[in-house]
């Protein structure tokens, strides 16, 4: 919902559709809040304000007075500041100055789903690399969701986020640095983009999360007294 909120806020701010300074500040605050709700919002909102600025310059919207340059500059400043605000919040809670601590895990899940991870492990599973994932080469999940959330996935069996971040970053860097994988990455990027623009996963994720799943573990750990209610929901 915050993706839509941030885009609507940008529309009002860039077109100057606010009635007072207080309303202006409220929209800016809401834009900042919506921008830091998800890492993808940072990129989407940045692309929107920069594209809007380029179009406004090209079409001379600023000079013609159809759009106020100061409105664009203020909105752009707030959007760009979100790239600093979100990592600062992470650092304040002890997670380090980063957009998302879980990015390596999600990227690895995607590489697993595309088959690129299997290709990499086939070429690089040696005693020297000593990757934990090598022991699971014949058991890699078929999709990213299973890699991340299935209790029996290699990711969860080897300790989850903290235990795997260094290894996953190493593998991702090696793949991105090797031209051998560029055709695979380009092909998957094009396919995934077209698929995402034309498909909606209606009901995606609406399955029971019972024993040996991440939600079960969290309810058990933090709200054990509600576990029976959870299991019967």
Question: What's a concise summary of this model?
Answer:
With 233 residues, this protein is mainly alpha-helical. The chain is built from twelve helices and no strands.
Can you give a write-up of this model?
The chain is mostly helical and 233 residues long. Helix content is 65%, strand content 0%. It has twelve helices and no strands. It has helices spanning 2-14, 21-35, 39-58, 69-92, 103-114, 116-124, 144-149, 154-157, 160-177, 182-198, 214-222, 227-231. It is globular, with a radius of gyration of 22 Å.
Helix-strand layout with pairing:
Elements: H1 2-14, H2 21-35, H3 39-58, H4 69-92, H5 103-114, H6 116-124, H7 144-149, H8 154-157, H9 160-177, H10 182-198, H11 214-222, H12 227-231
